[in-house]
């Protein structure tokens, strides 16, 4: 099952999006992205909550 996270859905003016079958991989990438680009921290639970099934 492929999941997707779109940064814009979280209210950011940002074109980052990621699709993966691996939740762990997505969590790693999204954590790094929001930290580096938006300067905020997201918990793994926050990120899981933002995932949509494609
Ligand atoms: Zn972003």
Give a description of the structure:
The structure is a single chain. This protein has helices at residues 23-38, 44-50; strands at 3-6, 17-20, 52-53. The protein is an alpha+beta fold and 54 residues long. It has one domain (3-53). It has a three-stranded antiparallel beta sheet, with helices on one face. The longest helix has 16 residues, at 23-38. It is globular. Residues 7, 12, 14, 16, 33, 37-38 line the site of zinc ion (ZN). This is DUF1059 domain-containing protein. InterPro entries: DUF1059. It comes from Haloferax marinum. It holds the Pfam family DUF1059.
> Which class of secondary structure composition applies to the elements?
alpha+beta
Number of strands: 3
Shape: globular
Number of domains: 1
Give unreliable regions as ranges: none
What proportion of the residues is helical, as a percent range? 40-55%
Instruction: Record the strand order, biggest sheet.
Output: 2-1-3
For the largest beta-sheet, the strand count, sense and barrel status come to: 3 strands, antiparallel
Mean pLDDT value: 96
How large is the share of residues in beta strands?
15-25%
| H/E element order | EEHHE
Distinct ligand kinds: zinc ion
Distance between the termini: 8 Å
The number of helical segments is: 2
Computed over alpha carbons, the radius of gyration is: 10 Å
Organism: Haloferax marinum
Protein name: DUF1059 domain-containing protein
InterPro entries: DUF1059
């Amino acid at each position: 099952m492929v999941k997707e996270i779109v940064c814009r859905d979280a209210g950011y003016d940002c074109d980052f999006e990621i699709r993966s079958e691996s939740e762990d991989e997505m969590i790693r990438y999204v954590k790094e992205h929001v930290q580096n680009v938006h300067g905020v921290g997201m918990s793994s639970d926050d990120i899981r909550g933002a995932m949509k099934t494609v």
